[in-house]
């Protein structure tokens, strides 16, 4: 009897001791975790207690208890939709920063309503369509049957990886890609302003957004991980949330043309417009610079741009430029199982749903665009100058994109 009671007392005391150990250990892990993930310049190691909050006397426990406080406060704060961001955008006071390190970061909002069934169903359908089209042998395109291991390294340069949140984004130029790249930069917290991570997507200058040194893409894995790169990529592809945004392929081409050839762009003028003018506009010596060309009103027509895309010579010289390269060649949708497929046509709803699914809707918002987007209703006008035969050939060139992502064959412009 006596020994059994003693035994029970020991068990209880032992358990209490273990729990104490766990609490202390948890405290350390929590603190170092936050420290690692907060790339502010190292300030004082010991936090100053916040003046307003009463603190317990034990030296081990303050940050643990303040974690709990912060956690509980999340539920008590009024649901104004105001981000409860522990890193204010423009304070740079060292002692305040040291304080922040001990507040756990919640990057998502607490929502009282689930994502609309309609939006979830829409994603389900888009993912299912991709699977069906990848399995359907009547949908044929180069590279469809290869395995992920056979994809050359340089073709993985459009997959941007964010290890902090476990996100992979395949960017498709002309499909809101600047804005999504901005969001990836913000999530990576690699861009600091006054010592704290930049939080406003539109404050990031354009040339920085498209500077590849700002983005950690899969093709850079080789430099860093050598022969383990492919293995590591596969692990990340399995664990992370992968997304891309697409739009109607023909409308994307119109948008590319308007942006690169109707506006003066020296780089595109030299690399592409001069070639088109020489080949299809009877201009053996086109103006030397884009300013000269625009001052005399010369630029390739939309029809010449399409002719350039259909010319077998074009691909022989170099692969399509990313602004008009097919999405199936940029993002490998049959090798990578995307978790989220956004459409530009439903960009705002999709963006909100996606940021919520990624659990980062507290730190970033998708910037709403006030520019005039290229609209599908203009398609007939734009293609009116392109011969019907060329339109059909162009459709063949982009048919996999139409089918993989559920865009209807534009019968009205193909059957004339
Ligand atoms: C930071 O705040 C402390 C007190 O809150 C103040 O003494 C100090 O001057 C501030 N430092 C800066 C750089 O603003
Ligand atoms: C494959 O696509 C064709 C249309 O090109 C369709 O008729 C067929 O039913 C599809 N096959 C499967 C198994 O879905
Ligand atoms: C892919 O494989 C299927 C059979 O599994 C075959 O019918 C098709 O021709 C192959 N496509 C390519 C592009 O190799
Ligand atoms: C991209 O950024 C790096 C460093 O941030 C800079 O050295 C490089 O010149 C930039 N490239 C372009 C094309 O702006
Ligand atoms: C957008 O389109 C409308 C009507 O089509 C036009 O009046 C307006 O000037 C356009 N805005 C810009 C910025 O191009």
TrEMBL record:
Region described as Disordered: 44-63, 77-100
Entry's Gene Ontology cellular component terms: Golgi membrane
Major localisation: Golgi
Segments of skewed composition (Pro residues): 44-54
Keyword line: Carbohydrate metabolism, Glycoprotein, Golgi apparatus, Membrane, Signal-anchor, Transferase, Transmembrane, Transmembrane helix
Coiled-coil stretches: none
Matches recorded under InterPro entries: Carb_sulfotrans_8-10 (IPR018011), Sulfotransferase (IPR005331)
UniProt-listed Enzyme Commission number(s): 2.8.2.-
Origin: domain of life: Eukaryota
Transmembrane segments: 7-26
Membrane topology, record value: Single-pass type II membrane protein
A Pfam family this chain is assigned to: Sulfotransfer_2
GO molecular function: sulfotransferase activity
Any single biological process term in GO: carbohydrate biosynthetic process
PANTHER family: CARBOHYDRATE SULFOTRANSFERASE, CARBOHYDRATE SULFOTRANSFERASE 12
Family statement drawn from the similarity comment of this UniProt entry: Belongs to the sulfotransferase 2 family.
Protein name: Carbohydrate sulfotransferase
The encoding gene: CHST12
């Amino acid at each position: 009897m006596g020994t059994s009671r003693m035994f029970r007392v020991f068990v209880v005391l032992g358990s209490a001791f273990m729990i104490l150990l766990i609490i202390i250990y948890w405290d350390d892990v929590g603190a170092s975790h936050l420290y690692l993930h907060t790339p502010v310049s190292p300030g004082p190691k010991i936090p100053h207690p916040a003046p307003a909050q009463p603190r317990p006397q034990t030296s081990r426990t303050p940050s643990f208890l303040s974690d709990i406080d912060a956690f509980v406060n999340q539920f008590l704060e009024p649901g104004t939709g105001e981000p409860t961001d522990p890193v204010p955008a423009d304070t740079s006071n060292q002692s305040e920063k040291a304080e922040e390190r001990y507040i756990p970061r919640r990057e998502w909002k607490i929502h009282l309503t689930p994502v609309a069934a309609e939006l979830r169903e829409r994603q389900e359908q888009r993912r299912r369509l991709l699977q069906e089209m990848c399995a359907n042998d009547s949908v044929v395109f180069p590279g469809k049957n290869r395995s992920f291991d056979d994809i050359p390294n340089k073709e993985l340069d459009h997959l941007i990886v964010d290890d902090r949140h476990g996100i992979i984004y395949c960017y498709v130029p002309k499909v809101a890609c600047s804005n999504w790249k901005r969001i990836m930069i913000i999530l990576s917290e690699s861009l600091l302003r006054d010592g704290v991570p930049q939080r406003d997507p539109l404050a990031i200058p354009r040339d920085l957004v498209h500077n590849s040194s700002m983005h950690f893409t899969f093709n850079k894995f080789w430099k860093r991980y050598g022969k383990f790169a492919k293995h590591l990529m596969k692990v990340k592809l399995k664990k992370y949330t992968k997304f891309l945004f697409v739009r109607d392929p023909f409308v994307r081409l119109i948008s590319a043309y308007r942006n690169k050839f109707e506006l003066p762009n020296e780089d595109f003028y030299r690399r592409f417009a001069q070639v088109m003018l020489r080949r299809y506009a009877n201009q053996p010596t086109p103006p030397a610079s884009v300013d000269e060309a625009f001052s005399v009103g010369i630029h390739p027509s939309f029809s010449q741009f399409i002719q350039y895309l259909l010319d077998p010579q074009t691909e022989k010289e170099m692969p399509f430029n990313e602004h008009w390269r097919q999405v199936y060649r940029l993002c490998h949708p049959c090798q990578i199982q995307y978790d989220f497929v956004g459409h530009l046509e439903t960009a705002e709803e999709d963006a909100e749903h996606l940021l919520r699914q990624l659990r980062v809707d507290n730190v970033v918002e998708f910037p709403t665009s006030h520019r005039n987007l290229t609209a599908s209703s203009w398609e007939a006008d734009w293609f009116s100058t392109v011969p019907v035969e060329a339109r059909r050939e162009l459709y063949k060139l982009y048919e996999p994109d139409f089918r993989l992502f559920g865009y209807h064959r534009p019968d009205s412009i193909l059957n004339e």
